[in-house]
Amino acid sequence: MTGYISILLALLLITLTNFASPATSGTYDVRIKDELGTTPLNISCHTNTNKYFPEKSLQWSFWYRFNLSIDGQTQSASCNLKYGNRKTTFEVFNNTRDPHNCPQWTCDWKVRENDVVQLQNKKWKAMYKW
C-alpha cells in the first residue's frame, strides 16, 4: 500500500512540474524550406535570454531576439509557435543572441509566400503560414 501511494505521489509531482514551467531543451523547428524544398531549418536559443509568462489558461507568450533578413532588408518579424497545447506568439527582432538550449517550438513565419528569408546566411522560402 505504501509503495502504491509513493508511486501516485511521484506521478503527481511529475505532472505538477510539467505544468509549472516549459521545457528547457530542444530546438525550434522553423517551417521554412529553402528554394530547393529541402528539410526545415532548426534554430535553438538561450532560454535565459528570453522572457516567457503565462496568460489565460495554459497559453504562453515567448520572446526571442536574433538577426532576420526578409528580401534583403533586416527587420523585425513574427511567427506563431505551439508548445504542447499552448498556442504562443513569437516575436523576432534584429538583435543577435547566442543560440543554445531553448524549449522546443514549432514555428511558422508570417511572411508572404514568395518572400525570400535570409537566416544564418542561408536563403529560405516560406513553406506555411498560420
TrEMBL record:
One GO CC term, this protein: extracellular region
Family affiliation: Belongs to the plant self-incompatibility (S1) protein family.
Name of this protein: S-protein homolog
UniProt keyword terms in alphabetical order: Secreted, Self-incompatibility, Signal
Source organism (scientific name): Phtheirospermum japonicum
Signal peptide (residue range): 1-22
InterPro entries per record: Self-incomp_S1
UniProt lineage: Eukaryota, Viridiplantae, Streptophyta, Embryophyta, Tracheophyta
GO biological process, one term: rejection of self pollen
